[in-house]
Amino acid sequence: MSKKMIKPGPDLLTQVNQAFLDYGYSGLSMVGLAKACGFTQRALYYYFSNKEEAFRAVIAHRHVEDVALALEAGRSVRAKGGGALDIFATILDVRYGETRRRLTSSPHTVELNAEAFKRCRDLMIKSAVSFQADLEKLVIALQAARLLKLNGEFTPEQIAQALADGARAVNQALPPIARDDFSARYRQMCAMVLYGCAVKPKRK
Question: What global pTM score does this model have?
Answer without folding.
Answer: 0.93
